[in-house]
Amino acid sequence: MSDRRYVTTGEVIGPESGFLRGHGTLAKDGKLQATVSGFVQRVNKLVSVHALNARYTGEIGDVVVCRILEVADRRWKADCNSRQNASLQLSSVHLPGGVQRRRTQEDSLQMRQYFVEGDLISAEVQKVQSDGSIALHTRSLKYGKLNHGMFLSVSPSLIKRCKNHFHSLDCGVDVILGNNGYVWIQASQRKRMGEQAAGGEE
């Protein structure tokens, strides 16, 4: 039974024996059948089918691209293409200069200096609650606010989970492939610096 294989509704995925039926599957006549069209995903013995139009389901360690929706009490609410808005706690962001300390009341009053409504950010899934809600963090220099680029949205099923979701292409473009189906494309930092230097010489 191959993982990530595309199946259509009613298609036989494989034998039922030795496997556990997950969502998007049906046991019939000793075989597992797909109840939706999508990609087969197998985790140990659990077999499920993720529909192409399904919303994003977070997993710890996922890289995501999100849009800030609200600045609340010591946290931000963000759209990450899931059934519920994600939450980014003030204690889970990278402070300027990389300072490691407890967040103060002054920090909470200055939250809009970090992110405001409408900002696009890259982040990592820190925790997935029992109700499916997602907690994020940006405690790394590779995460944070995204500027001067293009935002794209695709089906989360098209983004394969892998070790690296940050890519620098030879054509001078940097790409962030969010596990949640949100993609960020921008000119590479090296290219931007070269263009700025060229502009200064003119």
Could you name the CATH topology of the largest domain?
OB fold (Dihydrolipoamide Acetyltransferase, E2P)
Reported CATH architecture of the largest domain: Beta Barrel
Number of DSSP E strands:
17
- Quick one: CATH class of the largest domain? Mainly Beta
From the N-terminal CA to the C-terminal CA, the straight-line distance is 61 Å
Going by CATH, what is the homologous superfamily of the largest domain? Nucleic acid-binding proteins
Main sheet attributes: strand count, strand direction, barrel closure:
5 strands, mixed, barrel
Helical residue percent band: under 10%
Structural class from helices and strands?
Answer: mainly beta
The run of helices and strands is EEEEEEEEEEHEEEEEEEH
- Count the domains: 2
Count of alpha and pi helical runs:
2
- Bulk shape: elongated
Mean pLDDT: 88
Q: What are the segments in which pLDDT stays under 50 over at least 5 consecutive residues?
A: none
List the strand order in the largest sheet: 8-9-10-12-11
Oligomer: single chain
**Beta-strand share of residues:** 35-45%
Radius of gyration, in angstroms, nearest whole number:
20 Å
Structural description of this entry:
This protein is mainly beta. The protein has two domains: 6-51, OB fold (Dihydrolipoamide Acetyltransferase, E2P), CATH 2.40.50; 63-190, Nucleic acid-binding proteins (OB fold (Dihydrolipoamide Acetyltransferase, E2P), Beta Barrel), CATH 2.40.50.140. It has two helices and 17 strands. The strands form four sheets. The chain has a five-stranded mixed beta barrel. A four-stranded mixed β-sheet has the order 1-6-7-3, with no helix packed on it. It has a four-stranded antiparallel β-sheet with strand order 14-17-16-15. A hairpin with a 2-residue loop joins strand 4 and strand 5. The longest helix is centred in the C-terminal third of the chain and has 13 residues, at 189-201. The chain is elongated, with a radius of gyration of 20 Å. The mean pLDDT is 88. Keywords: Exosome, Nucleus, RNA-binding, rRNA processing. Residues 55-127 form the RRP4 S1 domain. Its main location: nucleus. Residues 149-189 form the K Homology domain. One of its GO terms (molecular function) is RNA binding.
